[in-house]
């Protein structure tokens, strides 16, 4: 497999690519909401980092299934993002650092429990649990920030009705890329490209939610949908070309029908 | 409930959620009637039962702690009972196999070398299909599932009530109510995946040998729940 021989991104590399733009994106939507369409592009790497963490851990065989680790990761990240919403606004300066650090700690502690107490033999458990939880916290914080407009008095606490959607949409975007690509010939390139497709779909969905959520978010919603749709077209083409390449290679690994 | 009491209630609730997973019979290969247990992963099934409990508990949030706990526990138990009943109907009339415990039939369950159901006294061995590890949910497995769901529902409802108590003084009631529900759901999901690591995708409940691994779950869930409770406490009480 030629694709397998290509160098893969490490979890740390992807997390760094997710963390820095992710924090910038959250700060952008918090302090200057009109730039949300640009910030949307910066949040996509967090989806890739989360999907890669699921891939990294689930490849070892968890015994719980890929879906469970996705649900767990988002449970940590999104729960901590939701917890942060009732912190006194006077301490707003601690956000998003408090949430990201807390998610890293809870993810790492869970990984340590799984590795040291339950004795799971997964060498990347601690690192990738922490990265998964932190990536989902970045996504949840951003989506919450996107759905608020403080100048129009739409605060993050008002967005509580969107919590279930944030939770489920993030979970599916994180767990599905590996689940949808797994099997013989699964490789990081195809999984990450599918993750990018699902990231743009998720942000487009939240653009639509923003439209419905408040009149103050009309232009935010429209612009986010346009940027996400453009990203979706680009990523789908890239993902589909990877699928075609991999399928082509697989078509000739078995016996052609004429030889049976 | 005092904030400090709520802090410890969140930890206790998280630990109860973790323990409940060991009692609820689940097996992915149960979908093909190839193993005893409800046909799904233990963590997802426990999470489903927990969500049913939280939904029910939330309706009685203004009625006091005891009603909230009872409501959560009974709703979870009802959800698992109905799931087991439906699974057994599908097994008996769809696949054509009777409920039978694989571990008990092979004399490897927690009850020793007996091949009889611990509650009904029915022999399990003649009912096992060749090449399978049991199928459906016999009486002892059903009983274990009910106990597990009762424990999990109580734990989830306890977390819901504790978080709600912490949030009511600082948020609008509707916001506090919804946010505490989601945080309780999150704590449930976090704690029910950890035990699934020890169960490796399959358990017959409290009569399964894997019940001996409960202390590991207890310690793990205690540590993780303590960290989560601390973060909730810091956000709701300290940074206010």
Describe what you observe in this structure.
- The complex is a heterodimer of chains A (260) and B (240).
- Chain A is mainly α and 260 residues long.
- Chain A has nine helices and no strands.
- In chain A, helix 2 (11-31) runs parallel beside helix 6.
- Chain A is globular and about 50 Å long.
- Chain B is mainly alpha-helical and 240 residues long.
- Chain B is 65% helix and 3% strand.
- In chain B, the strands form two sheets. A two-stranded antiparallel sheet of chain B has the order 1-4. In chain B, strands 2-3 form a two-stranded antiparallel ribbon.
- In chain B, helix 3 (65-95) packs antiparallel against helix 5.
- The two termini of chain B are 18 Å apart.
- The model of chain B has no long low-confidence stretch (mean pLDDT 88).
- The A-B interface holds A 62-65, 67-69, 71-72, 75-76, 78-80, 82-88, 91, 94, 102, 105-106, 109-110, 113-114, 117-120, 157-158, 160-161, 163-164, 167 and B 28, 41-44, 47, 167, 170-172, 175, 178-179, 182-183, 185-187, 189-190, 193-194, 196-201, 216-217, 219-220, 223-224, 227-228, 231-232, 235-236, 239-240.
Largest contact between protein chains? A-B, 41 and 42 residues
Beta-strand share of residues of chain B? under 5%
Assembly type of the shown chains?
A: heterodimer
- Unreliable segments of 5+ consecutive residues of chain B: none
- The SS-based structural class of chain B is mainly alpha
Strand order of the largest sheet of chain B: 1-4
Helix/sheet category of chain A: mainly alpha
Q: What is the helix fraction of residues of chain B, given as a range?
A: 55-70%
Reading the helices and strands of chain B in chain order gives: HEHHEHEHHEH
The major beta sheet of chain A can be summarized as: none
How large is the radius of gyration of chain A? 19 Å
Gap from first CA to last CA of chain B: 18 Å
Shape of chain B: elongated
Name the average pLDDT of chain B: 88
Q: Give the overall pLDDT of chain A as a whole number.
A: 85
Shape of chain A: globular
Number of strands of chain B: 4
H/E element string of chain A? HHHHHHHHH
The portion of residues assigned to helices of chain A is over 70%
Which percent range describes the beta-strand content of chain A?
under 5%
Subunit structure (chain A): The complex is composed of 8 subunits; MtrA, MtrB, MtrC, MtrD, MtrE, MtrF, MtrG and MtrH.
Family (chain A): Belongs to the MtrC family.
EC number (chain A): 7.2.1.4
Function (chain A): Part of a complex that catalyzes the formation of methyl-coenzyme M and tetrahydromethanopterin from coenzyme M and methyl-tetrahydromethanopterin. This is an energy-conserving, sodium-ion translocating step.
């Amino acid at each position: 497999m030629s694709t397998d021989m290509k160098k893969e991104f490490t979890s740390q590399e992807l997390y760094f690519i997710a963390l820095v733009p992710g924090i910038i994106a959250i700060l952008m939507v918090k302090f200057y909401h009109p730039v949300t369409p640009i910030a949307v592009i910066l949040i996509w790497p967090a989806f890739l980092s989360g999907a890669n963490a699921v891939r990294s851990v689930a490849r070892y065989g968890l015994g719980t299934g890929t879906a469970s680790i996705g649900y767990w990761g988002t449970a940590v990240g999104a729960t901590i993002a939701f917890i942060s919403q009732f912190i006194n606004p006077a301490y707003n300066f601690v956000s998003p650092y408090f949430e990201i650090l807390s998610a890293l700690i809870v993810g790492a502690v869970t990984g340590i429990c799984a590795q040291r107490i339950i004795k799971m033999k997964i060498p990347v458990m601690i690192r990738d649990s922490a990265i998964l939880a932190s990536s989902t916290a970045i996504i949840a914080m951003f989506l919450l920030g996107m759905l608020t407009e403080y100048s129009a008095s739409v605060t993050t606490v008002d967005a509580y009705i969107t919590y279930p959607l944030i939770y489920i949409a993030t979970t599916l975007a994180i767990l599905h890329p590996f689940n949808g690509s797994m099997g013989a010939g699964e490789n990081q390139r195809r999984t990450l490209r599918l993750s990018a497709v699902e990231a743009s779909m998720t942000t487009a969905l939240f653009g639509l939610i923003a439209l419905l959520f408040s009149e103050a978010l009309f232009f935010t919603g429209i612009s986010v949908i346009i940027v996400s749709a453009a990203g979706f077209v680009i990523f789908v083409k890239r993902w589909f070309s990877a699928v075609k390449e991999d399928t082509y290679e697989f078509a000739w690994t078995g016996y052609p029908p004429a030889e049976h | 409930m005092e904030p400090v009491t709520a802090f410890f209630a969140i930890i206790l609730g998280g630990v109860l959620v973790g323990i409940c997973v060991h009692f609820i019979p689940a097996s992915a290969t149960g979908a093909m009637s190839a193993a005893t247990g409800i046909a799904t992963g233990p963590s997802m099934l426990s999470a489903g039962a927990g969500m049913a409990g939280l939904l029910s508990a939330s309706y009685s949030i203004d009625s006091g702690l005891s009603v909230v706990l009872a409501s959560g526990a009974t709703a979870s138990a009802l959800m698992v009972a109905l799931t087991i009943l439906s699974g057994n109907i599908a097994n008996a009339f769809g696949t054509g196999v009777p409920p039978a415990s694989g571990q008990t039939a092979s004399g490897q369950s927690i009850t020793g070398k007996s091949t009889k159901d611990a509650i009904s006294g029915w022999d399990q061995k003649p009912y096992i299909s060749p090449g399978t590890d049991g199928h459906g949910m016999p009486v002892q497995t059903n009983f274990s599932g009910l106990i597990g769901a009762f424990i999990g529902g109580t734990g989830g409802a306890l977390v819901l009530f504790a978080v709600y108590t912490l949030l009511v003084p600082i948020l609008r009631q509707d916001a506090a109510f919804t946010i505490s529900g989601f945080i309780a759901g999150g704590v449930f999901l976090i704690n029910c995946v950890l035990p699934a690591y020890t169960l490796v995708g399959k358990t017959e409940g409290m009569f399964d040998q894997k019940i001996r691994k409960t202390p590991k779950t207890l310690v793990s869930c205690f540590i993780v729940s303590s960290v989560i409770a601390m973060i909730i406490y810091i956000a709701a009480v300290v940074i206010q």
